[in-house]
Amino acid sequence: MVMFKSGAVRHRSMRWAAVLALGASAALVGAGPASAAEADITGGSLTWGFKSSFRNYVKTGNGNPPIAVSNGATVNTDGTFTFPSTGGTRDAGGGATSATYGGTVVFSYPAHFFTITLANPTVAISGGTAALKADVDLVTTESEPVSVKQATIATLTVSGSNPATSGNTVTGSNIAAVLTSQGATAFNGFYTAGESLDPVSFTFSTGGATPAEPTVTVTPSHGLDPAGATITVRGAGFDPDANNAAGIYVSFGPRVDEHWANAGVLQVTKWVNKTNEPTDARDRMAADGSFNTTLPISAVYTDRKGNQVDCTQVQCYVITFAARGSADRSQDTFIPITFTRTGGGGGTAQQRITSTVTGGPLTLSVAGSGVELPAVGKGEYAKAPLNPATVADLRGIGTGWSLVGQVSDFASAGGVIAANSLGWSPTATAVVDPIAGSSGVVTPGAAAAPGAGLGEARALCTAAAGASNGIFTCGAELNLGVPASAAAGDYVATLTLTLS
Fold first, then answer.
1. Is the CB of residue 202 less than 8 Å from the CB of residue 90?
2. Is the pLDDT of residue 183 over 90?
């Protein structure tokens, strides 16, 4: 929590000052261990179509394709989209919820000069009110581009019975959604604030025992005949219900960047889930998350792009990962496989070295206890740096995060200054890791000018999925514009930083 307090009227009656201080009750999502009533969200999905009339309009356009999904999002038969759970928390006592989901939908209509990207929706519930947030990027030749992280797109109408709770599972069914002013801006004014959007349905599960970490053993795993061998792959600790029970792929081949989206380099893949009937290409996962299957492999093969892969020259692995292109990386494992080299003379000896790296938390800390803005007169600007915020993403799963800020109105005994009078110019840097060089990639939020400032939640800094691990410093130059109509006096406001 950031407190703004104006200084007393000093030598001139038309001059005043503002003080910014960090309180001990800061509202930080993911900043530390959950409270006694707060539980981590461990699975679920969200289904939404934005607005059916908009989808039908975009489908008539010349996008290639007009509507595309990626990063785990899927298209349903009715044209709506399903996004897999990526976590979040729920307070079972008060009902406060931040349920996050992954996946990306792109609406493209080049003939009408726009491309809109909608990603990573979040259902936020607090105090009997609910909202749907998402990352929105708008590219158009008709106006300046828009890029907003976790914009509040819609308000949701929740009641005492919807969403409903059954055990550790919460389900919201066809919840009415209404476009917000921020959502209208992010979608280029296609619709005005207050219009009805498609209803939202979601589910998520919390609590229960901590899921086991996936483990895999391969027999045999070394000294294989390069001409070909059948290996047995046994797994345990997988989640058969994750990602809408899509299951996992069990594959063989080299490890490449974004392996879940580059399966063409793999020699063989078997789909394993809890409902499959065993075939040459499929197998079944038990209710406890275990499986036992086989893969026929050889040292040299031609991948789907026509390239020859030689696993005696490059390291190949038995690889498991979430099925259907899911963004869930918790099902990933890599077991190295070696073959006996052929040819005259020489020889090799190998030792398998293993190590366990434990995951850490996603935390936020802020330096200093206060920021003082200089005294200024009416119609002037007061500038000072925000106390630097440090975000440490030590989870090791690279799912991305965002740090946003929003301020309340400034209040004094003599009047009010609107929250949007406070703007900022964010900065962000990655802290160098002395062991492995640079950390992930952090992006500062867009600058917000006084008058169109922090009355709405705005990104201070963000890190995208796949590049969010590490330690980062985020700051901003604060800029408070004092309206000419402001009364002289001491003002106070609250700025909340939220990490999610």
1. no
2. no
Token pair, residue 77, equals 């038969």
pLDDT for res 33: 40
Tell me if 156 sits within 8 A of 132, measured CB to CB: yes
Q: How confident is the model at residue 347 (pLDDT cuts 50, 70, 90)?
A: low
User: Where is mean pLDDT largest: 187-196, 317-326, 346-355, 486-495?
Assistant: 317-326
Amino acid 128: pLDDT: 76
The angle at the Cα of 32, spanning 31 to 33, to the nearest 5 degrees, equals: 145
Contact partners, residue 193, CB within 8 Å, separation at least 6? 179, 180, 181, 183, 184
What are 137's two structure tokens? 């990027």
Distance of CA 467 to the CA centre of its chain: 11
* Strand 169-179, strand 248-254: pairing: unpaired
What is the DSSP secondary-structure string of 230-299? EEEEEEES--TTHHHHT-EEEEEEE--TTGGG-GGG-SEEEEEESSPPP-SSEEE--TTS-EEEEEEE-S
**Span of 8-22, 125-139, 173-187 with lowest mean pLDDT:** 8-22
Task: Please provide the average confidence, as pLDDT, over all residues in the chain.
Answer: 84
Q: b/e map of 200-234 (b: 16 or more CB within 10 Å)?
A: bbbbbbbeeeeeeebebebeebeebeeeebebebe
Contact between 296 and 240 (Cβ < 8 Å):
no
Residue among 149, 138, 154, 148 at smallest CA distance from 198? 154
Q: What is the distance in angstroms between the CA of the first residue and the CA of the last residue of the chain?
A: 16
In the predicted model, what is the mean pLDDT of residues 218-236? 93
**How far is Cα 417 from Cα 457, in angstroms, rounded to an integer?**
17
> CA separation (Å) from 426 to 363, 458, 489?
19, 10, 28
CATH number of 215-337: 2.60.40.230
- In this structure, are strands 104-109 and 97-101 parallel, antiparallel, or unpaired? unpaired
What pLDDT, on a 0 to 100 scale, did the predictor assign at position 275? 93
For residue 432 the two structure tokens come to: 């160098």
**Domain boundaries in the chain?**
2-28+361-499, 38-206, 215-337
Tell me the pLDDT band of 2, cut-offs 50, 70 and 90: very low
Provide the 3-class DSSP secondary structure of residue 151: strand
Degrees to nearest 5, angle at CA 92 with 90 and 97: 25
